[in-house]
Structure formats: C-alpha cells, structure tokens
Amino acid sequence: MATPTRPTDQDPDWADQLADHLGPGCFPATHDRLVAILSTRHAPSHLLWRLAALPRAREFSSLAELLEHLGQTDGPSGPRTSTDPS
C-alpha cells in the first residue's frame, strides 16, 4: 500500500479537484463526513491531506466556507493565497 504524499505548492489545482469531488449536496459536513465522501469517491490522497488541518467538530456549510478555512479565499480557479510568511 502506498503512503499518501503531503500536498505541496506544486498542487495549484487542488481546490478545483476538491470542488470536483465535493458538490453542493455534500454540505453541511464535518471533517469526518468530508473524509468519508472523498474516500468513497476515490479522491486523490493529497486532498485528504488538505483536510487533515480541519477542526474535527466544526461543520462547514459550503465548499466556499471550507476553502476559506483552508486558505483558498477565492474558491476554485480563483487567485491563490500565498503560504510564504515573508
């Protein structure tokens, strides 16, 4: 079994991929529900790594809210926020 790889800045389309796997019918959802959905839809492992940063008990009402929490403020295909602290 292959070990999942951590996401990197070389995954610029991760938000688009997440949107492909999580439609409006998936929300509201908690971390555990989102992971279950991605798993059953055979989503790439790097998307599961992205969700690892989420609080377990918080319920997200939409993909936009989820992406905002993950630091992707403009949603799929929008401008990316910088992860460079400088």
Textual characterization of the structure:
The protein has 86 residues and is mainly alpha-helical. The chain has a domain at 23-69. 37% of the residues lie in helices and 5% in strands. The chain is built from four helices and two strands; from the N terminus they run H-E-H-H-E-H. It has helices spanning 14-21, 31-40, 45-51, 63-69, and strands at 29-30, 59-60. It has a two-stranded antiparallel sheet with strand order 1-2. The N and C termini lie far apart (38 Å). This is DUF2795 domain-containing protein. InterPro entries: DUF2795. It comes from Pedococcus badiiscoriae.
What keywords describe this structure?
mainly alpha, disordered C terminus, 4 helices, globular, disordered N terminus, 2 strands, 86 residues
Secondary structure: elements and pairs:
Layout (H helix, E strand, L loop, with lengths): L13 H8 L7 E2 H10 L4 H7 L7 E2 L2 H7 L17
Antiparallel strand pairs: 1-2
Strand content: under 5%
Q: Report the count of strand segments.
A: 2
Strand order of the largest sheet: 1-2
Taken from the alpha-carbon principal axes, the silhouette is: globular
Rg, please?
12 Å
Low-confidence stretches: 1-8, 78-86
Approximate helicity band? 25-40%
Number of helical regions: 4
Describe the main β-sheet briefly.
Answer: 2 strands, antiparallel
SS content category: mainly alpha
Mean pLDDT: 80
Distance between the termini: 38 Å
Element pattern in H and E? HEHHEH
Oligomer: single chain
